[in-house]
Design brief:
The structure holds 2 protein chains of 2 kinds. Chain A is α/β, with parallel strands linked by helices. Helices cover 47% and strands 15% of the residues of chain A. Chain A has a single domain, classed as Phosphotransferase system, mannose-type IIA component (Rossmann fold, 3-Layer(aba) Sandwich). In chain A, α1 packs parallel to α4, α2 crosses α3 and α4 runs antiparallel to α5. By secondary structure, chain B is mainly α. Chain B has one domain: Alpha Horseshoe (Serine Threonine Protein Phosphatase 5, Tetratricopeptide repeat), CATH 1.25.40. Chain B contains 9 helices and no strands. Chain B starts with a helix and ends with a helix.
Chain lengths: 129, 206
């Protein structure tokens, strides 16, 4: 199954989005949060993100949802630092909606391409119909 | 006795930590007021990770880069982290630095920052100090100047680069949200990279 990593400057945002996504797919263990710095400060940490990607991977790749600015730069750095051939990719999607949709797709056994495509479609969805 | 590379990186760290408030104030004008705080936290982390007996310049630069990645927190973390790590790759196994090594460090740092930040010159970033510094360095070396003379030229060009960043609007990073309001302010990243070059330049004379 595809793993999911949620990256945010805030550990609470990353952990909260992880919790929300996990609630949608009971039994799916492949969702990891990589938010904030080790000392609790606001920020992103490429090494923490790399560790989370490695933990989330079970051989089918990892989709990452990241917030703005250094969230993306640190995630790209983490992907470059992966020594093993993990297929890790960033979904260009809102972090909460993207994480929920990606987790649901991953939990039903979708491929990494499908997970990313579904997560990225959340960009277009209106929340108020 | 501590190694040369340890002493040099320590002096860079001291300079950044001394200028924490100054860099943060610059960032307050056009960014999110965290550049100095973040960079100081990063170099405090570096000082705990580097060992004084490390002679290998490449290994020391790599450790510096890896530590900055996980301690800075903002965009400067992956940008400076990549610059130091890629410079480290270029210097791996070396225990002394010559003219060609300095050129290789400039080139690896510029390429690393460009790869990570997808930035070009003229976008009000650290590249606006670092790229002219590199060109002046190379011109100096080509004209037969010594390493330290060419580094003096590089520092002058980097300072001119800081002045240039005051005249242009930011198109990268948080400052880009300000549009024309970013004009008139110097770029914090261009300032911190220039501080580092000045420390190296002075250190090489010692």
């Amino acid at each position: 199954m595809v793993g999911i990593v949620i990256v945010s400057h805030s550990s609470k945002i990353a952990e909260g989005a992880r919790e929300l996504a996990a609630q949608m797919c009971p039994g799916f263990e492949g969702i990891y949060a990589a938010g904030g710095m080790e000392d609790g400060s606001i920020g992103t940490d490429a090494i923490r993100i790399k560790t989370a990607i490695e933990a989330a991977d079970s051989g089918d790749g990892v989709v990452i949802l990241a917030d703005l600015g250094s969230g993306i730069l640190s995630t790209e750095t983490a992907i470059d630092l992966l020594e093993t051939g993990i297929d890790a990719r960033i979904a260009d999607a809102p972090i909460v909606e993207g994480a929920v949709v990606a987790a649901v797709q991953a939990s039903v056994g979708s491929s990494i391409d499908e997970v990313i495509s579904e997560a990225e479609q959340t960009r277009q969805q209106s929340k108020i119909s | 006795m501590a190694s040369r590379v340890y002493d040099c990186l320590s002096k860079i760290g001291e300079k950044i930590i001394e200028n924490k408030d100054f860099l943060t104030d610059l960032d307050r004008e056009i960014g999110d007021a965290d550049h100095g705080v973040n960079m100081a936290r990063g170099f405090e982390g570096v000082m705990t990770k580097l060992t004084p007996d490390t002679e290998d310049i490449g290994a020391a630069l790599k450790t510096t880069g890896m530590t900055l990645l996980s301690t800075v927190g903002g965009a400067s973390g992956p940008l400076y982290g990549t610059a130091f790590m890629d410079s480290g790759k270029a210097m791996m196994g070396k225990t002394a630095l010559d003219k060609d090594d300095m050129k290789a460090i400039f080139e690896a740092a510029i390429a690393g920052i460009q790869k990570r930040g997808k930035a070009e010159r003229g976008e009000k970033t650290m590249l606006d100090a670092l790229m002219p510094a590199y060109e002046s360095y190379c011109a100096g070396i080509d004209a037969g100047k010594s390493l330290t003379e060419a580094m003096d030229d590089a520092c002058r060009a980097a300072n001119d680069g800081i002045e240039f960043t005051k005249t242009i609007r930011a198109t990268k990073g948080r400052a880009s949200y300000l549009g024309d309001r970013s004009i008139g302010h110097q770029d914090p990243g261009a300032t911190s990279i220039t501080m580092m070059l000045e420390v190296v330049s002075e250190f090489l004379k010692s």
